[in-house]
Amino acid sequence: MSHENDVIERFKPLLEPKTLAVVGASATSMSAANVFIRRIREMGYSGTIYPIHPSAASVDGLTAYKSVADTPQPIDYLYISVAAAHVPKMLAEANGRVRYAQVISSGFGEVDEGKALQEELVASARKGGLRLLGPNCLGLYSPRGRVTFVENSSTEVGTVGIISQSGGLGTDIVRRGSVRGLRYSAAVTVGNSADLGPNDLLEYYLADPQTKVIGIYLEAVKDGRRLFDLLKAHRAKKPVVLLKGGRTQQGLMAAASHTGSLAGDDRVWVALSRQTGCILVETLDQFLDTLLIFQSLTPRSNDPTREVVMFGNGGGTSVLGTDLFARMGLDVTPFGKPTLEALQALKLPPGTSITNPVDAPVGTLQQDEGRIAEKILDAIFSNGKPQALVMHLNLAAFLGRTKTDVLGNLMQAATRVQSRYPGSAHFILVLRSDGEPEIENRKREFRAQALALGIPVYDEMMNAGWALSALCAHERFLARGQ
Amino acid sequence: MTNNALIGEARSAGRGSLDELNGKRLLTQFGVAVPKSVVVQAGESLTPKLAGLEGPYVVKVMSQDILHKSDVGGVRVRMKDAAEVEAAISDMLARPEIAKARLDGFLVEEMAPAGQELVIGALRDPQFGPLVMVGLGGIFVEVLKDVAFRICPIERIDAVEMLDELKGKALLDGARGQAGVSREAIIETLLKIGSEQGLLMSLSEDIAEADINPLIVSQHGAVAVDARFILTAQGAQA
Question: What is the pLDDT of residue B173?
Answer without folding.
Answer: 87
